Hints:
heterodimer, A: alpha/beta, Rossmann fold, 5 helices, 45% helix, globular, B: mainly alpha, Serine Threonine Protein Phosphatase 5, Tetratricopeptide repeat, two-stranded antiparallel ribbon
Amino acid sequence: MDRVSLVFVSHSADIVKGLKALLYEMQPAVSIGIAGGEEGGGIGTNAFDIKAALESVHSPKGTVILFDLGSALINAELAIEMLDDPSNIRIADAPILEGGYSAVVEAGFGSDVGKVVEAAEKAKEMQKVHRS
Amino acid sequence: MNLTVKTTISWLEKFDEKIQVNKDLLTDLDQAIGDGDHGINMSRGLTEVMKTLESKSFQTIGDLIKGVAMTLIGKVGGASGPLYGSAFLKMGAKIGAKEQLSDEELLEALKEGEQAIIQRGKASVGEKTMVDVWSPLLEDFSQETHINWEDLKVAAHEKMTGTKDLHAKKGRAAYLGARSVGHIDPGAMSSYLLFESLAETMMEGENNNG
């Protein structure tokens, strides 16, 4: 079964590496690409790295990008524009961890790219602590 | 004076010098209202741009500017890499295979760069970003067919210092809200240095030509 792929973009290489490991445990069937940090280990994001991550997990069903902060979005948009085939790639407006968790579950079901984005974005409303 | 491949290189060399000299200032400005990496990022980016200029030869201004764009996108983290990179990319595309540019053509190319920054950063005038130098400055000179570069330099400086009174709405500074007032925007400062470098390069060229 074709599944939507996910790409995680963070200012930190360690954040996306850890996130990928966490999500793989949850749903190993979904391809996850990561782009984090700058060359030399610095904090930052790089459009060419994001482009490579998108290409590495290309799926005919589409790819959803989740990112952490500001310039990660700017570089993700630039990376999409640089692709030969930018169709079916969506950026989710979602918290990277909770949104990623919801997205990997939804993508695991074989849902389409719109449904995966929706699941990721719903994570913004997730209540984590239920106070009495 | 028309901009040529040679004067474009002089412009970028001057920009590099100013960025390296003002690295700590850019960092201080960014530490006040951002994440404190603007000086380091611009310094590294321009060092890489100088390496690109040394290692390759460019026949047209468009190719040169595009080469600069790819270096900035690949080597500069933070928002400044993709923003300056996108600006140079669009400027390079607009200039194309030309070997020299009149003031009017140069303004048109810079205008493309401004539009790329606005589109990529989704910022508008008054939000305390580099747009607050690019947009009003190019607007002031939009009708000129022969630019007085001293005037442009002075105007760019005014736009840059004007960001001090603005309330940040974009980037990391937006988290500070009203507390961002009173600080010059670091991206506006580096943009000022870019235009100051251009103006000085053009003035030197005019003086040399008598």
